[in-house]
């Protein structure tokens, strides 16, 4: 197996704040990685670095064996912060089409091949009917499915999904995880999937990348989600309780993941805590 | 039928009418196309502010003996570029924009105060005077319109991407700030042209009414753009025809058609939504 994302003693900082310090890990081709950690741990920042938007201040970060280039078509991305124009009367098809080579200057040139590719991908995530609906009439979950389809267009080799479960209800969350896992297995896509809750991902992920306190730990759930490792990452005493196929990460008797989740939705949820 | 044909030929017997159709036609197409993106990006208020800032520029130009168009153009261009460069989001900050636009109108008034002979032209600036357009103005508008549309065409693809999905566009390497600054400069050009036809106070009638109406009836990008330009053109020309027959001010007729077009399309789209289920 070849490695897709490799950090070697990498330090990543934003505005003088060091988000990751001297981090080293390597993600292999085809892996489905759950990215977890408290708010502000650097999940979004790490993804932006992998996209080439934020080079490490020390050490090295390699994607497909070289320094990441901004706009690499081999990387599909679903951003966490998603601007939603409230009265956007543009249909799903044109919304996705805008992202195809949207970085090139000049007039858009919608081609028949692009259209076929978009509809094929919408089919893959079960969202064909969204092609002709205006964005302003879609629910949060429908927009999410559309964005997921978009991130798969152009046959990416690496998929960065930043909190793709936000604004989905429990049933749609499960469906989304299943669809992503299935499509990515079929196409052998490496996935970084950030989330608030570990439990929903347990059946889907190969390994977990836990971020916190400037550190990153990559390993199987059994290796990483333990009291000593998480206490180090959270910087406080953490208990890990396993019960009925669920893992509860507790701090002084409170479920920290659930707290973070509630907090995020309480204040609107879509602010960039990771900056 | 015979009577109608005669009145139409009558209308074109006047050179000022032909000029009015030519000037309004050029401007309407530019306004409909640029306005489509203004509405899509939710920046209509910024466009409104640019036209008010242009009023100060136009009266200021009069004070130093320049043609008002150049003052209008200079002020709106600088203001558009500053708005775009200051911040990604400042163009959506209603309060800051509101304060700046009333300040600009105030300055316009001050310049008028020191240049009293200019007062008759003030009405033309504020409400437009398409019937007074001459050949030089048509040539200028055609040249400006061509520049505006070429610039819009050059940035259209990244502009759409950056408008719909700024976070992803940034990740794919679209220079967001440059695109939004260039767009506001393009809006400034369109506003200056538009103000020659319907005046600074009524640029909404051509730049917002037609694209907003078009977006209610079609959700396709290309069909929306084409319909927006076509509606703007139809409203501008029909407005002139109505004004010719009624002797009402042209800008009023265009404003009336623009509002009518929008509300008809709004009603049609909500009727369609209700009956679709």
Count of discrete domains of chain A? 1
Query: Which residue ranges of chain A are poorly predicted, with pLDDT under 50 across at least 5 consecutive positions?
Result: 263-275
Q: H/E order of the elements of chain A?
A: EEEHEEHHHEHEEEHHEEEH
What fraction, in percent, of the residue positions of chain B are helical? Answer: over 70%
Query: What is the straight-line distance between the termini of chain B?
Result: 43 Å
Strand order of the largest sheet of chain A: 5-6-7-3-8-9
**CATH topology (fold) name of chain A:** Rossmann fold
Average pLDDT number of chain B? 89
The succession of helices and strands of chain B, N to C, reads HHHHHHHHHHHHH
Helix tally of chain A equals 8
Instruction: Tell the overall outline of chain B.
Output: globular
Could you state the CATH homologous superfamily of chain B? ABC transporter involved in vitamin B12 uptake, BtuC
CATH architecture title of chain A:
3-Layer(aba) Sandwich
Summarize the structure in short.
The complex is a heterodimer of chains A (275) and B (277). Chain A is of the alpha/beta class and 275 residues long.
């Amino acid at each position: 197996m070849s490695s897709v994302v490799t950090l070697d003693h990498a330090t990543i900082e934003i505005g003088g704040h060091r988000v990751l310090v001297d981090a080293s890990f390597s993600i292999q081709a085809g892996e489905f990685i759950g990215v977890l950690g408290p708010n502000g741990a650097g999940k979004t920042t790490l993804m932006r670095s992998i996209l080439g938007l934020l080079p490490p201040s020390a050490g090295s970060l390699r994607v497909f064996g070289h320094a990441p280039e901004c706009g690499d078509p081999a990387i599909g991305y679903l951003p966490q912060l998603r601007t939603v124009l409230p009265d956007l009367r543009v249909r799903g098809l044109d919304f996705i089409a805008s992202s195809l080579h949207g970085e090139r200057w000049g007039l858009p040139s919608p081609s028949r091949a692009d259209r076929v590719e978009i509809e094929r991908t919408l089919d893959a995530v079960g969202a064909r009917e969204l092609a002709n609906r205006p964005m302003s009439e879609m629910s949060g979950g429908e927009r999410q499915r559309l964005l997921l389809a978009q991130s798969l267009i152009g046959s990416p080799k690496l998929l960065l999904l930043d909190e793709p479960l936000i604004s989905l209800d429990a049933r749609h969350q499960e469906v989304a995880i299943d669809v992503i896992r299935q499509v990515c297995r079929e196409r052998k896509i490496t996935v970084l999937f950030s989330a608030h809750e570990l439990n929903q991902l347990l059946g889907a992920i190969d390994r977990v990348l836990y971020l916190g306190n400037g550190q990153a730990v990559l390993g199987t759930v059994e290796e990483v989600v333990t009291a000593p490792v998480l206490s180090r990452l959270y910087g406080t005493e953490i208990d890990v309780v396993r019960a009925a196929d669920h893992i509860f990460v507790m701090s002084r008797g409170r479920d920290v993941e659930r707290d973070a989740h509630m907090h995020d939705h309480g204040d609107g949820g879509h602010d960039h805590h990771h900056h | 039928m015979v009577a109608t044909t005669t009145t139409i030929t009558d209308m074109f017997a006047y050179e000022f009418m032909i000029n009015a159709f030519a000037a309004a036609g050029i401007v309407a197409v530019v306004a409909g196309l640029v306005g489509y993106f203004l509405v899509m990006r939710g920046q209509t208020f910024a466009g409104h502010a640019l036209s008010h800032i242009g009023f100060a520029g136009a009266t200021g130009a009069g004070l130093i003996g320049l043609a008002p168009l150049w003052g209008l153009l200079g002020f709106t261009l600088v203001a558009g570029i500053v708005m775009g460069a200051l911040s990604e989001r400042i163009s959506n900050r209603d309060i800051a924009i509101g304060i700046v636009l009333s300040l600009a109108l105030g300055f316009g008034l001050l310049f008028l105060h020191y240049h009293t002979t200019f007062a008759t032209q003030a009405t033309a600036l504020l409400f437009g005077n398409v019937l007074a357009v001459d050949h030089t103005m048509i040539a200028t508008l055609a040249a400006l319109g061509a520049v505006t549309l070429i610039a819009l065409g050059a940035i259209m693809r990244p502009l759409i991407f950056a408008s719909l999905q700024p976070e992803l566009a940034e990740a794919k390497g679209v220079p967001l700030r440059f695109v939004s600054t260039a767009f506001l400069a393009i809006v400034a050009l369109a506003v200056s042209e538009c103000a020659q036809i319907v005046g600074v106070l009524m640029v909404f009638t051509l730049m917002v009414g037609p694209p907003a109406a078009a977006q209610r009836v079609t959700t396709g990008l290309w069909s929306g753009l084409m319909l927006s330009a076509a509606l703007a053109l139809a409203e501008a020309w029909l407005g002139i025809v109505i004004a010719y027959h009624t002797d009402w001010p042209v800008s009023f007729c265009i404003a009336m058609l623009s509002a009518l077009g929008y509300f008809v399309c709004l009603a049609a789209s909500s009727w369609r939504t209700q009956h679709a289920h």
